[in-house]
Amino acid sequence: MQSSRRHFMILAASLASSVALSGKASAETPAVSESDPTAQALGFKTDATHVDKAKYPKYLAGQACANCQLYQGKPGDASGPCPIFSGKQVPTKGWCSAYVKKA
Ligand code: SF4
Question: CB-based contacts of 97: which residues, under 8 Å, 6+ apart?
Answer without folding.
Answer: 42, 43, 56, 58, 59
